[in-house]
Amino acid sequence: MSSPRVRTLEDLKLQRRWVLWRLIHKPGTPKPTKIPFQVNGKMARTNDPATWATHADCEAVVSQFSGIGLVLGEVDGVSVWGVDIDNCCDAVTGKFTPESREVVIGLDSYSEYSPSGTGCHVFGIGPLPGDGEPVVRPHPGCKQIEIKGRSYKGRGFYFTFSGRHLSKTPRDLMHRQKEITVLYNRVQTMPTKTGSKGVTVRITSDEETRYKQLMAGDMSDYDDNHSVADMALVSILAKRHHNNAFLIDQEFCKSGLYRQKWDRLDYKWSTIGKVIKGEPVFDDADDALMEDDGVDEYLVDALGKGHEGWFPKGDVSLIGGSSGSGKTYWVMTLLEKVRGGADVWGHKAIARDYRVVMHDRGQKGMRRTLDALGLSVEARQRVIRLTSKQQSLQPAEVLEAAIDKNPGAEAWFIEGLDMWFPNTIKMEVVAPIMDGLQRLATRRNVAVIATVGAPKEKTAERRDTERYHGRDALFGSSALARKCETVVLISKTDMADENSPRQYSVLPRNGRAERFWMTFACGKLIVVDPPPPKEQGIPGRKPAKGGLLKLNIWAKFKPGERVVYSHELGVSRAFYYDWVKIAVAEGVMEQRDGVYYRTTLEAQRTE
User: Fold this and answer.
1) pLDDT given at position 460
2) Helix (H, G, I), strand (E, B) or coil at 369
3) With 60 as the cut, is the pLDDT of residue 484 above it?
4) Cα(231)–Cα(460) distance, rounded to whole angstroms?
5) Which of 470, 501, 466 is nearest to 486 (CA)?
6) In the CATH scheme, what is the code of domain 298-534?
7) Residue 493 in contact with residue 576, Cβ under 8 Å?
8) Do residues 414 and 359 make contact, with C-beta atoms less than 8 angstroms apart?
9) What is the distance between the alpha carbons of residues 339 and 333, in angstroms, rounded to a whole number?
10) 3-state DSSP call for residue 110?
């Protein structure tokens, strides 16, 4: 008899392997026990399939119980194992201990917070090693780890299922036979006692005190984590304003926590929406705390307030540009500056070593590329060319092996990542590859930088920016922009002139965008002044009239303020909108969510 093909968590929910549970305090026990129940209210047995139901059946009556549970072991030919990591994270901040975090990321399968919020469960497809004997042992960074699967000596097992998914782990149960076997064997050999006490959960002050602290911008109760503090304040404001989203937003803007990120509509309404709907707080990739290990580290430091550093460690960043735009040379030049701890075009940098993985070059082609780049001997020694076999593997698998051989490298540059995508357009193809690299970068705490294609400019008069904007200008699936941090776009200012300056748009996820122009002179890249609008292929304007408009805007609006049209600016509405588009291209104005802001054109150092 053939077994059903379980591909997703939703497929698993259709199986009759689910129970309900209720906390019951048995006489003589120090704390309540989770007892399994059937949908009809009678007690369920974890070794009797006749007492199990589908997830939908349990969900229909779950309000009468404490929650839903997933029965482990084999059902209709599909085996499920579970790992319960007890007392491994802070119920207030959601932050994991390093040891437990390593276990979760290493298993790389569906993971979720436990109902208490202080532990987590990892579920996967496949049998446990050996005869499937359950393992329960203390473990560093948590109280204990339980690994269970099929029935053992007539006794079945189930784990509670909260549905509070841990972001940046797969949303489905994965086949991870190698990973669960390694963990099972390691935990099985651990001593039955350990000095680890897991995570100490902090007791916070009363709500009124916390409200005053948060309104004043004090995040000390939340390890100075801005996202956590934002959520905490929104939770208090929601109570005070009866879940009125607009009043919550209005009051939040008066607090000391208000910053530019709050003006991002996706972040603002996602944060408010979660509180109002009562959803789990930390289940979005953008603000997941499982990956938050403290102060962010960047290869290139931020310019100042309002800016963000380039290429954070523990994340993936992308460089986009059409073929021949100079992506590889620019990144190699930047990495060499970082390796020496030198300034990077006006930005400070701490000395960090790097390695380069070349994918889209043959052996001779790679030699010609290195010759053309004019790299030093030290730089050439840091370039790794992949074999044909390695090119057929997953990027994360190849990169992890390379990291093992080069443990001192904190930055990894993948040249030609899009060559690894069988189809660059489909999100279901691109997203898993990006997720794999993200988890690897997080687990190994390295900065991963990769080059991908971007649409070619058609002519000097019609640029790609007419169709593609900001981070979305990367060629291919939107998963690229959504699943990376720093994005750098490189484009020629004049397609007809090979020696014309190239525009570099650095787009951090949260900070201000930076735009500057560079050209190759005297054997190196130097920063130059922006070319005149006509050379950028942007329709021209009368200098006097445009200059007057700029003076009026600078007089009326301060740096960072939102700029809106009015007759006081002395030009027509049509001219105003033509001018601000040019100003954005020149880097003296910013556009966010369809709104224009005045910014300051940062002075760039020529090196």
Assistant:
1) 38
2) helix
3) yes
4) 47
5) 470
6) 3.40.50.300
7) no
8) yes
9) 10
10) coil
Concatenating the DSSP letter of every residue in 203-228 gives: PP--HHHHHHHHHTT--GGGTT-HHH
The two tokens of residue 607 are 């090196």
Helix (H, G, I), strand (E, B), or coil: what is residue 388? helix
Residues in contact with 415: Cβ distance below 8 Å, sequence separation at least 6, in sequence order: 328, 331, 356, 357, 358, 359, 360, 361, 450, 451
Alpha carbon dihedral 90, 93, 99, 100, in 10-degree steps, equals 70
Q: In this structure, what token pair is assigned to residue 107?
A: 């298993």
What is the CATH topology of the domain spanning 539-598? Arc Repressor Mutant, subunit A (1.10.10)
Asked, colleague to colleague, whether 298-534 and 539-598 share their fold, the answer is: no
SS3 of residue 404 by DSSP: helix
Q: Which residues, including other chains, have CB under 8 Å from residue 177's CB and lie 6 or more apart?
A: 126
Asked whether the beta carbons of 304 and 346 are under 8 A apart, the reply is no
pLDDT at 602: 39
Q: How confident is the model at residue 287 (pLDDT cuts 50, 70, 90)?
A: very low
Residue 465's pLDDT band (boundaries 50, 70, 90)? very low
Q: What is the pLDDT of residue 499?
A: 66
Give phi and psi for 389, each to the nearest 5: -65, -45
Q: Are 306 and 260 in contact (CB under 8 A)?
A: yes
Residue 462 has pLDDT above 70, yes or no: no
**φ, ψ at 344 (rounded to 5°):** -110, 90
Taking residue 572's Cβ as centre, other Cβ atoms within 10 Å add up to 12
Scanning the structure block, which residue is given the tokens 């085996």?
79
Taking 60 as the threshold, does the pLDDT of residue 537 lie above it?
no
Can you read off the two tokens belonging to residue 130?
């050996």
Q: Of 100, 38, 31, whose CA–CA distance to 69 is shortest?
A: 38
Q: What pLDDT shows up at residue 73?
A: 93
User: pLDDT digits over 404-431, tens only?
Assistant: 888 788 999 998 888 888 887 777 778 7
Q: What tens digit of pLDDT does each residue of 487-525 get?
A: 898 887 665 556 678 889 898 877 788 888 888 776 677
Residue 452's identity, in one-letter code, is: V
Of 441, 443, 517, nearest to 485 by C-alpha is 441
pLDDT for 238: 80
- pLDDT per position as a tens digit, 158-177: 999 988 888 778 889 999 99
The domain segmentation of the chain, as residue ranges, is: 9-188, 207-287, 298-534, 539-598
164's tokens: 């509070």
